[in-house]
Amino acid sequence: LEKMTDLVAVWEVALSDGVHKIEFEHGTTSGKRVVYVDGKEEIRREWMFKLVGKETFTVGATKTKAAINIDAVSGFAYEYTLEINGKSLKQYMENRLKTTNTWILNLGGTDYRIVLEKDTMDVWCNGEKMETAGEFVDDGTETHFTVADHSCCIKAVSSGKRKEGIIHTLIVDNREIPEAVE
Q: Which phi and psi angles does 30 have, rounded to 5°?
């Protein structure tokens, strides 16, 4: 395995199925471009005469669209920006804060990352989409699922304030889990 000598950028991207590492090699003398997702080579181009441009690929189980833009800043300096679903990484992560909830918890010595996609009510645990059962209750809804023989429930309750909207709470074995900040 050759050493990544032309590594110019590394990004960590939190998606529903996990946090993914994207690495980009750009050989400005050879024109080489290599994209790695979670250590696996996704794209390799040798002898590119055009040193600027865009490389597109997908990330994770959901095949989320990603692109690396290569722009010349000055002389032989380049800028590399990552886009996820057509948005800059910053815009994507800001939007994600509004559309998902994430909880990190430890059950029986194992770490679990649980993600709720608010628009679809899909629940992900450590990269797997979970089987869930939803029910209406007096003050909102409950989405039930199981993680490692532990009963889990995401309660959705109106905050009573339009700006805040719905508050989602994860309860595992009758214990409320605080939301994680990624």
A: -90, -15
Q: What is the tens place of the pLDDT at every residue in 49-79?
A: 788 899 999 999 989 999 999 999 887 789 9
In words, the CATH class of domain 7-85 is: mainly beta
User: CATH topology for 94-177?
Assistant: Lipocalin (2.40.128)
Task: Assign residue 118 a region (left: φ > 0; alpha: ψ between -120 and 50; beta: otherwise).
Answer: alpha
Name all contacts of 51-58 with Cβ < 8 Å and 24+ positions apart. 51/26, 51/78, 52/78, 55/24
Cβ of 36: how many Cβ atoms within 10 Å?
19
Q: Summarize pLDDT for 72-98 with one digit per residue, the tens.
A: 988 778 999 999 999 999 999 999 989
pLDDT one-digit tens code per residue, 103-126: 999 999 999 999 999 999 999 999
CA torsion through residues 87, 89, 92, 94, sign: negative
Provide the 3-class DSSP secondary structure of residue 96: helix
Domain ranges of the chain: 7-85, 94-177
Ramachandran class of 17: left when φ > 0, alpha when ψ lies in -120 to 50, beta otherwise? alpha
**pTM for the whole thing?**
0.84
- Classify residue 31 by its DSSP letter: -
